[in-house]
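Could someone model KG4 with this protein?
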Amino acid sequence: MATILAIESSCDETSASVCVDGKILSNHIANQTVHEQYGGVVPELASRAHMQNIVPVVDVALKNANIDLSVVDAIAFTQAPGLIGSLLVGAQFAKSLALSLNKPLIAVHHMQAHVLANLIDDPKPEFPFLCLTVSGGHTQIVKASSPNELKVIGETIDDAAGEAFDKSAKLLGLPYPGGPLIDKYAQQGNPTAFKFAEPQIPELNFSFSGLKTSVLYFLQAKQKEDPEFINKHVNDLCASIQSTIINILMKKVKKAVQQTGITNVCIAGGVSANSGLRTTLTEWGEKNGWKTFIPQFQYCTDNAAMIAITAYYKYLQADFVDLSVSPTARANW
Ligand code: KG4
Ligand code: ZN
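Reply:
Sure, complex below.
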C-alpha cells in the first residue's frame, strides 16, 4: 500500500491531494481571487496567499480522503517550473512534513504531472501516447513512452496557448483569466464569422504571438468604424478566436500522429478544460481512428491530484529526493 500526500503551489492555486495505490481519494483546490483586479497573477500576492492557504488546504484534503497524517507513506510536491515564491511555500511545507514524519520526499515536475493527469481515471491511454499539454505558461506536444520517460517533441516558440486566450480576452475587455470566458461566449457564437492569421511554423512547433497582433489590428480597424463593435459581436469574436487557436493546435497534433505513428492521443493543462478543444479532439479522433483521452475538468487546471499520481509512479521506482532539494522557476526535463 502506498499512501501519498501531494502538494501543488506553482502558480496561483494552492492544492493538496491524497492518493492510495494510484487511486485519488481527494483533490482540494483553493483558488486565489486576489489577482483578478490586477489583470494577471501578482507573484508576491500569490506567495502570501499560499502561506495562508496551505495548512487548511492540506487539512481538508486529508479529511476528504478520511486519512490520518500518520498513515501517509510519502510526501510529494511540485518542484518546478513555476513562480519561485509560490513553489518555495509548497516545497518548504512538504520538506517540513517529510522531516517531522520521517517519510520520503518526492519532487515532481509540473509539466510531467499535467501529462500524467491522463492516468488518473479509466480508460487510461496505452504507452506510447502523445499528449498536447496546453496551459498558461506552456504549449507542448509530449511523447510519453512510460510514466517516467517523457520527451517534448514540439513546443511554442513564443506565447503559450493559454496566453493567446488570455491576451485576446484582454483585447476584448474581458477580465483575467479570460480563457474560460472566451470558452463561454464562444458557445453562442459563429466560429467562421471572422478570420485571423494562422502562422506557418516548421516541424511540430507553435507560435501564438501573431494571433494576438492580428486580433489587435482587426479590433482597432473595426472600432474606428463602430465603437460598439466588440459589444455587438463578442460571441462571434470569441468563437472565431477560439477556433483559430484550436486549429493551430490540432493541425500539429495531426502532424505528430503522422510522424510518430502513435494513435493514443491525450490533452492536458488548463486549456484542455476548453469545451471547443475537447469536442474537436474527440471528433478528429473518431475521423482519423485515434483513441483520445481527456482528463476530468478538475484535473486539467492546476491541481495536486496530478502531482499525486506522478508521485505514485516515482514512489514505485523509489525515486526520492533529500531535504537539500530546492524548487526552481524553470526546469527542462
Ligand atoms: O494549467 P493551468 O491551470 O496553469 C498553468 O500552469 O499555466 O492553465 C491556466 C490557463 C489560463 O491561461 C486559462 O485562461 C486557461 O488555462 N484556461 C482556459 C480554460 N480554462 C482555463 N482556456 C480556454 N478555455 C477554458 N475553458
Ligand atoms: Zn499548470
